[in-house]
Design a protein that fits this description.
19 helices
Length: 555
């Protein structure tokens, strides 16, 4: 009983390790994109985004779902004490990854010109896409290692490999972008063109992705080799009579991977479709190509980059929650499963709601601090995107987490169906916004909000029907929302006063953000948005509780 209780509270702490790593990865990604954006410009960002959208779809097919599928199957067998079968899942997944990674890498490299020209109307992105192609093979292999470790209920190898991957990515991206932009400028001078510099720069920035992935894989191989003796010792001691065949394991993996691939593909393919629809319809409406690419570059390179940082929390909790939910379902511990869902949702909302409010209130100061764009029209466009679309931070975090919950409780088909329904409605709304209301890039932002909202609603209904779960509203949504609203007003006032007194944006913005975090935490505790028991389950919960007591915010 004590062991089960320990496992029950451990999942959130394991998830927090991955959440912290994921946030650091996103922050590093955001920071290195600042100099890269300055090097390649908004147009180069558009080319980079186009290549990355195709790469993301191919990644979904080859390896995105592998960590989840491996973690789910390994966790289920470990729960039954079938350590030999768990290791055979690892071996079968590795064979699958080698095949899928090779095929998708070759297709992406050879078809780069067709994909970028026919699908996205951006042939300048082909060079960047070809550089990304080898990363598909590397990440497929890496996904198996990450899933295997997650299935053992340890997120540390995944977390550290993500950090290693992103640090190398950042360093190579900046250096390669500088070198490749100069190469492209020479090509422009020789041929009399104007796009080679941005196109080559985008290619240079994608080189970091491939080299970062290789570094992360090498780290995971090292960790696996150092722990292989312990893993194999447990396999040899396994007394389970039932031995799963390679064919049976491959079948189970494929049946697990396919629904996840389909749901995540539909969930993420909207970005590729949005780009194609936006660029095609904008041209038909008479918008110039450079203006189209600039608008999309701001959307993908600034708005999406910043909003993806808090959404990383949900992605990390999905990775840690699914193995735990799978074990609960195998052992029929449904009450514990509902507790895991509740705490994961609470943790996600408590952190993402204030992030959304902060990004909305301080959009312009943050953009000036990070990007220092000299074009006032570009800054105005980016700020308006945040005002229109910052709610997507909360909606995408919740929909991502609820997708993972459904997969963890063996409702694998439902995220596929929900994603397909939401995508159809989303595209219809996008078409109307672009053509009838001529909302431009803001129509894309609003359509994304609608997509995530529909996913939240449908997933929430499905979870309630499947496991009898109802999400508590007041402490999960209402109190954090009130606290974040008050924080937003206070932060705006602090920033306004500091700008009047000092006139230095960097100091005013950073100090306001720090004050906002303190104000939100104090209000959350004062309004009893978190109980002592819940706070102790949070990462570093004992330390946070001691601080709260010393500040007389919690008894």
């Amino acid at each position: 009983m004590a062991n089960k209780k320990k496992n029950s509270s451990n999942y959130l702490k394991q998830g927090s390790i991955l959440a912290v790593a994921s946030i650091l990865v996103r922050v590093i990604g955001m920071l290195y994109r600042i100099p890269v954006t300055r090097i390649i410009g908004n147009e180069g960002n558009s080319y980079y985004s186009s290549a990355f959208d195709i790469y993301t779809i191919m990644l979904l097919i080859s390896s995105y779902s592998i960590p989840l599928a491996v973690a789910k199957q390994v966790s289920a067998r470990n729960a039954r004490g079938e350590y030999r079968n768990a290791y055979r899942v690892f071996q079968g997944a590795m064979a699958f990854a080698l095949i899928a990674g090779t095929v998708t890498s070759v297709i992406t490299f050879l078809g780069a010109g067709i994909f970028t020209e026919k699908l996205l109307k951006t042939p300048e992105s082909a060079f960047a896409l070809r550089i990304l192609a080898p990363a598909l093979f590397i990440l497929a292999i890496m996904g198996v290692f990450r899933g295997f470790f997650q299935g053992q209920n340890t997120m540390i190898p995944t977390a550290v490999s993500q950090l290693v991957e992103q640090v190398i990515n950042a360093a190579v991206s900046i250096g390669a972008a500088l070198v490749f932009v100069k190469m492209g400028s020479r090509v422009d001078a020789i041929l009399g063109t104007s796009t080679a510099s941005a196109s080559y720069g985008a290619g240079g920035s994608t080189l970091g992705t491939t080299m970062g992935a290789l570094s992360g894989l090498l780290f995971l191989i090292f960790v696996f080799l150092t722990s292989r003796g312990r893993i194999l010792a447990r396999v040899r001691k396994d007394q389970t009579r039932h031995r799963e065949s390679s064919r049976a394991i491959m079948k189970i993996l494929i049946l697990t991977i396919i629904p996840v691939v389909m749901s995540t593909a539909i969930y993420n393919i909207s970005g590729v479709i949005d780009q194609g629809v936006f660029k095609s319809l904008s041209r038909e409406l008479g918008m110039e190509s450079s203006a189209i690419n600039t608008a999309w570059g701001i959307f993908s390179g600034k708005f999406k980059t910043l909003t993806n940082v808090p959404i990383a929390i949900a992605n990390a909790l999905v990775s840690s929650t699914i193995p735990g939910l799978t074990m609960c379902m195998v052992e029929k511990r449904y009450r514990e499963a509902r507790h895991k869902i509740r705490m994961s949702t609470r943790f996600t909302m408590v952190l993402t709601i204030p992030c959304a409010v902060g990004l909305g209130v301080l959009a312009e100061p943050i953009l000036q601090l990070l990007y220092n764009d000299p074009d006032p029209d570009a800054v105005k466009m980016a700020v308006k995107m945040f005002h229109v679309g910052v709610i997507s931070v909360v909606l995408y975090a919740l929909s991502t987490l609820s997708n993972g919950v459904l997969q963890g409780i063996n409702q694998m088909r439902l995220p596929v169906i929900h994603s397909a329904v939401a995508l159809v409605i989303h595209l219809a709304a996008l078409y109307v916004m672009l053509t009838r209301f001529q909302m431009g890039i803001y129509g894309v932002v609003q359509a994304n909000n609608l997509f995530a909202l529909l996913m939240c609603i449908m997933n929430g209904i499905a979870i309630r029907r499947a496991i009898g779960y109802r999400q508590e509203v007041v402490k999960t949504f209402l109190i954090p929302g009130i606290c974040a609203g008050v924080m937003g007003v206070a932060v705006y006032g602090i920033y306004f006063v500091l700008m009047k007194l000092l006139g230095i944006n960097a100091i005013a913005a950073l100090f306001s953000i720090g004050c906002g975090a303190v104000i939100y935490a104090v209000l959350l505790l004062m309004l009893k948005g978190i109980s002592k028991k819940e706070l102790l389950e949070f990462p570093k919960g004992k330390m946070l509780y001691r601080i709260a007591r010393k500040c007389h915010l919690m008894s």
